[in-house]
Amino acid sequence: MIYSFFIFFGIIFVIALVVLIIINSRKAEERPESISKVRDPVKNYQPNFIEESLPVEAPAMNNPRSENKSFIASIVDSADDAIIGKSLDGRITSWNRGAEKLYGYPADQAIGQPVSIIFPPELKDDLPKILSRIKKGEHIKHYQTVRMDNTGRRIAVSITISPVTDEKGEIIGATAIDRDITQEMELDRLKDEFISLTSHALRTPLSAIKGLISMIYQGDYGPMNKNLEKPLSNISISTERLIQLVNDLLNISKIQTGKLEFVLTVFSVEKSISKVFKLLEPLAKESKIELKLAANKLPDVQADIEKTEEILNNLLSNALKFTNKGSVEVSLQHNNDLIWVIVRDTGVGIAEKDRSKLFRRFVQIANPTSKHITGTGLGLYLSKMLAQKMGGDVWLAASELKKGSTFVFSLPSAGSKPADEAKLNLVKKVNNSKLI
Amino acid sequence: MMNKILIIEDDQILVQMYETKFKHAGFEVETALDGVTGLEKMRTDKPDFVLLDIVMPKLSGKDLFEKVRFDPELQKIPIAILTNVDNPKEQAEYLNKGAVGYFKKSVLTPAQVVEEVRNILIHG
Predict the structure, then answer these.
(1) What is the CATH number of domain A263-435?
(2) Which of A64, A201, A343, B59 gets the highest tally of CB atoms within 10 A of its CB?
(3) Is B68 helix (H, G, I), strand (E, B) or coil?
(4) Where is it found, in Gene Ontology cellular component terms (chain A) (predicted)?
(5) What does the buried/exposed string (b/e) look like for B5-38 if buried means 16 or more CB atoms within 10 Å of the residue's CB?
(6) In this complex, is the C-beta atom of A206 within 8 Å of any C-beta atom belonging to chain B?
(7) Angle at the Cα of A92 (from A91 to A97), degrees rounded to 5?
């Protein structure tokens, strides 16, 4: 009874997590680049959004320019976002009603003041950097930072800044659109908190189920009843699947929000392979598949050991699952700055039509010779993502139906250029998430 | 001589589970369902080993660990973290600060936890 209760709630939590992940990934896809170089400098200041939001019956359509201007001014003034004009020396030249509302200063007080009045003291250094970018004609889009109102209260904002040019095309200032994102930030925080709480809440009952089943097996609660072996083994398999699913979902969600931590060290990937072989030996023996490692001395890699083993485990257990007879063989190669781990199986192979779907989320390729569908449909997707974050990759190198498949997992060798780049990117990620 | 282990863990079902396994493995077992009781029992029961959960009411495992680190009487008792929090940085931090193990409840079975504890008690 109590187990079915746990499992029921577990499933509810997992569904909630899946929905969160999907919502989050949509958001991530919509998130634009932070900074972009201007391609086509605007001659006269005419922000795009005004043209786009122009109603069809607008008087501006066939009217003189002056009316058009006042129409634009009224839109600017009625906008919810703060729209602020500034000169190249950082003085405020225009201040709409949205700015009055967000920052508390009335327009007549703000205009003429240095724009630094809305910069928190700890971020004052940002202003010269922003101004020098503007002078170069750069646009800054959706820059998430903090500003300050007239009472000193900090406000989380997303800022888009564009240069303003005069008739001759000279840059004479900039316009900034500041959007209050306090609520979005709060939602993000709540979502993160929800994910970390649910992960803990989910794992606790799952570890009780896992632990108690193992103890029933081991006779801790009296002699084991033979008839219970099969159902207990099935509960055990299902529990492991749920645990894996929770881990995968949490990892994906963490990767998407830039919160998955990587501990990069230098190690021999061969050792990791041997370790994973040991874990998978029972499964290989049971299905009478030979696990082989063609060892050769190669340089160490730079990666996160746990994540590397997770990827290896995923590739190798996939290979075992889809192989009915023969072997799963791992070999190593040194290609430029990368170490390739090549996993070759003599399994069922992957049909042409399925190959493009392999690395997508929640895609499971049916195994035609097995009734069991195991796994979460997230393994390859997650493996590829993890490998890429570490400066490597995972891909399908070859496959033939009924003959087998070959997957390659690459990692940068220690001290190589891709290794340094991966290190830099992961550090940058951490700093960025702190800044926001 | 029988080793005495103190399990500080707020989930009743898990406490009972680990208690049973350790008793069957020949340990003397004490339990505490929150950090405050756990700290008291560390003083009064003088266990040979402590398994410490992190997320707990009253006094969290993290706070208890910090208190014990600077307590001349208690700092000698080996503590292993037993948790479902999966955070490699936190794991490294605990080990650096003197924890003798960091066991993930959803990864290890109770028998494997017993095995790990035994190894630590034998080999230090």
Answers:
(1) 3.30.565.10
(2) A343
(3) helix
(4) plasma membrane
(5) bbbbbbbebbbebbbbbbebbebebbbbbbbbeb
(6) yes
(7) 170
**Could you give the residue range(s) of every CATH 3.30.450.20 domain in chain A?**
34-180
- CB contact at 8 A, A305 and A272: yes
> What CATH fold (topology level) applies to the domain A34-180?
Beta-Lactamase (3.30.450)
Whole-number pLDDT of residue A55: 41
Q: Where are the domains of chain B?
A: 4-123
ipTM tops 0.90 = yes
Q: What is the mean pLDDT of residues A196-209?
A: 88
Stronger pLDDT, A27 or A82, i.e. the higher one: A82
Asked if A203's CB is within 8 angstroms of B84's CB, the reply is yes
Contact with chain B for residue A247, Cβ under 8 A: yes
> Which DSSP helix (H) or strand (E) runs through B101?
strand B101-104
Residues of B in contact with A204 (CB under 8 A): 11, 14, 84, 105
Closest-CA residue in chain A for B90? A261
User: pTM of the prediction?
Assistant: 0.62
* pLDDT of A394 strictly over 90: yes
CA distance B69 to B89: 19
- In the sheet with A393-400, reading across from the earlier edge strand, the strands are A290-294, A327-335, A338-345, A404-412, A393-400
Whether the CB-CB separation of A162 and A184 falls below 8 Å is answered with no
Burial A279-308 (b: 16+ CB within 10 A, else e): ebeeebeeeebebeeeeeebebbbbbbebb
User: What's the CATH architecture for B4-123?
Assistant: 3-Layer(aba) Sandwich (3.40)
